[in-house]
Amino acid sequence: MKKFYSLILIVLVATTTAIAGPITSAGSGNWNSTTPNAPWPGGIVPSAGDDVSIRPGDNITVTADATVGSITFLNTSATSRTLTVNTGVTLTVTTGITLQNSLTTNTAATIAGAGTINCASVTVGGTAALVTSNSTSTLTSTITALSMTGNLSLIGVDNGARDNDVTLNLQSGTISVGGSVVLNEVSGTSVTLTLASGAQTGTLKISGTPAFSNTGSPAFTANGTNTTVEYAGAAQTVSPVSYKNLTLSGSGIKTMTSINTVSGTFLVSGTASATAATSMSIGAVDIESGTFNGSTFSHSVSGAWTNNGGTYTASTGTITFSGSATIGGTATTTFNNLIISGSSNTVTLGVNTSVAGNLTVSDNFNLSIFSCNRTASGGTLNVTGTMRLAGDAGGQTGSNFPTNFTTVTLGGTVE
After folding, report:
1. pLDDT digits (tens, 9 = 90+) for 262-296
2. Between the CA of residue 359 and those of 226, 248, 316, 327, 346, what are the distances in Å?
3. How far apart are the C-alpha atoms of 252 and 291, rounded to whole Å?
């Protein structure tokens, strides 16, 4: 009889500690809390393999490393909820994270905290097809690191005159997508991925090919106040929108279809190669490695130009510096046509620089101790602004006065 009771006790312990299956939150609280309904029913903390559902209004904080099978933000009401991962903590989701849409109402959730979530995929919307009311599904991300090996999918739902519109707000932190960003805007719906809400400091890093897989005409807003989009995979097409900071890394050809505005830093690294497809307005250029071909177009740069060992192919194009900046780095850049323009701005050389076409100075150009010579005899040097040289002699007798220009017109000041 004693052995029989011992067996019953062992079975009871096993069934209360080894549950694997669906678990739905029953309140708010810390993820690893064993207090019943704060947040888990019966105080049973989810474990690896469990499929976790979080109800609207239940705010849960992950305070220690945890692993589960999946996470679903349920669609049972319009009340939002927040999943927070604390500093130094990693939540691993072996399959996907999903925000359900509803047949009748809005749904919303926020992923926050200074920790990390690693998962296979993230999906917003597309879970309920026969919507009976116009509604929205909105996921907001402010977590320090949200990384997925697969796709980030935003899926609108159209049911005749009734639609579910989908939005992902990347407000801060980094979302890393190992697959593609899938924006499925079916007829009548609105699908939006934006980096221009909240703190506007988020980074979107995409490693898959294609980088974007779009249906319809979804909205991708990438030019938040201090946001960055990085194309980090092999051959990728860069989405034709305006950017704040744009990074091309990884490898292969990055196709620059209609990219005309990068108001922050345009950075090229890895073995990536990109060719301009139109004239560009750029805040700053940083070529760490890889190749950027300016092609035949005229580009405006309002900030620094840094070349730390990459390749700039000038082709037959023109670079115009329209603000105060330094042309520097560890490697020499050869421009085709170089124009120093603006009003009371100064462009300063921090490295030897060369010109294959013409050099035009209509504002302030400080060569410092460096050279800006033409690569071969020809072209025009036209100074209507101020050009400062090295040494005390100044003028055309200065040791670094630009050489090899066939035509020299000095209507401004050389000192």
Report:
1. 999 999 999 999 999 999 999 999 999 999 999 99
2. 33, 29, 13, 14, 15
3. 10
Question: Of 90, 64, 73, 209, which Cα lies nearest the Cα of 145?
Answer: 90
H or E segment at 11? helix 2-17
pLDDT for the residue numbered 218: 97
- CA-based angle 191:194:199, to the nearest 5? 150
pLDDT for residue 9 is more than 60: no
What distances in angstroms separate CA 277 from CA 213, 311, 335, 340, one per listed residue? 21, 17, 18, 23
CA–CA distance, 285 with 36 (Å, rounded to integer)? 56
- CB of 205 closer than 8 Å to CB of 227: no
Strands 157-159 and 162-170: antiparallel
What pLDDT, in 10s, does the model give residues 339-395?
999 889 999 999 999 999 999 999 999 999 999 999 999 999 999 999 999 864 445
- Token reading at 230: 């990085």
- Cα→Cα distances 188→65, 164, 321, Å: 42, 9, 44
**Gap between the Cα atoms of 7 and 335, Å rounded:** 82
Task: Determine contact, residues 96/124, Cβ cutoff 8 Å.
Answer: no
Q: Return the H-helix or E-strand segment holding 15.
A: helix 2-17
User: In the prediction, which pLDDT does 20 show?
Assistant: 60
Q: What is the CA radius of gyration of the chain?
A: 28
